């Protein structure tokens, strides 16, 4: 019935067709997330009955499924997974399930499910107007950092990534990554996949921009837009330039959003307390909580 295969660069065009069908704003069903983390989670996919199915390995190699995404009702996708796991004689578990899908899943499985919430995986969703304009007293701290940057580097430039400047972007990140403290396994994987994905900017639906000071790149950001949301997958800056992180966040937001892009998803904090403090300081519109689900009986 379901014939899963690994995600590859060549498969992204097929996968991308189904991503706008998702009815949530979590980052898990995006090109950037799927491609960057495909090897870390041993991600596989298949298309069946106009629906995208994904399975990954988490919790010491145990197989889990993400929410089916497609043109058919979600319940049909759930039933397909019930039949597949029965056929394979394996338990049915889900990961990264958005909060709005909990009730339909409970109803479908007649409450024979167990839920587990992981705050570390909650996405930070912001209003695009907030991050592109930074108005009001609550953003005075960010504006102060940016004003200092502009005073120190009045001739800075924000430049969109394109095929003519990607070599410079890649060289910058190569130098940047050599000085990174790679304590967490996920940080090591992110570094590796960022190096892989930068040469593909413009080819797989991702776009980016960078800030230049005196002819040198000092910050960059990469994302994609699906429906009404900008997803920021990569954001790096040299801390020796005060205000560089605030600047690249704001410049990328201003350049990327339009009247149809209402939200910005800056993904999760992976349990990093410093990153959590930073993301909360931008006053998220909402935290997009996600859950692990175990079906007690198929």
Q: How many whole angstroms does the radius of gyration measure?
A: 20 Å
CATH architecture of the largest domain: 3-Layer(aba) Sandwich
- Summed up, the domain count is 2
- Count up the helices: 10
Domain Phosphatidylglycerol lysyltransferase C-terminal: 25-293
Organism: Anaerocolumna aminovalerica
InterPro entries: Acyl_CoA_acyltransferase (IPR016181), LPG_synthase_C (IPR024320), UCP018688 (IPR016732)
Pfam families: LPG_synthase_C
Write up what this structure looks like.
- This protein has helices at residues 12-16, 31-36, 74-88, 102-108, 128-133, 140-152, 166-178, 185-197, 244-256, 273-280, and strands at 5-6, 44-48, 51-58, 62-65, 69-70, 93-98, 113-117, 123-127, 157-160, 207-213, 216-226, 229-237, 263-265, 286-288, 290-295.
- The chain has 2 domains: 5-122 and 290-295, Gcn5-related N-acetyltransferase (GNAT) (Aminopeptidase), CATH 3.40.630.30; 123-267, Gcn5-related N-acetyltransferase (GNAT) (Aminopeptidase, 3-Layer(aba) Sandwich), CATH 3.40.630.
- Helix content is 33%, strand content 27%.
- The radius of gyration is 20 Å and the shape is globular.
- It has 298 residues and is an alpha+beta fold.
- The longest helix has 15 residues, at 74-88.
Q: Tags for this entry?
A:
alpha+beta, Aminopeptidase, 2 domains, 10 helices, 33% helix, globular, LPG_synthase_C, Acyl_CoA_acyltransferase, UCP018688, Phosphatidylglycerol lysyltransferase C-terminal domain-containing protein
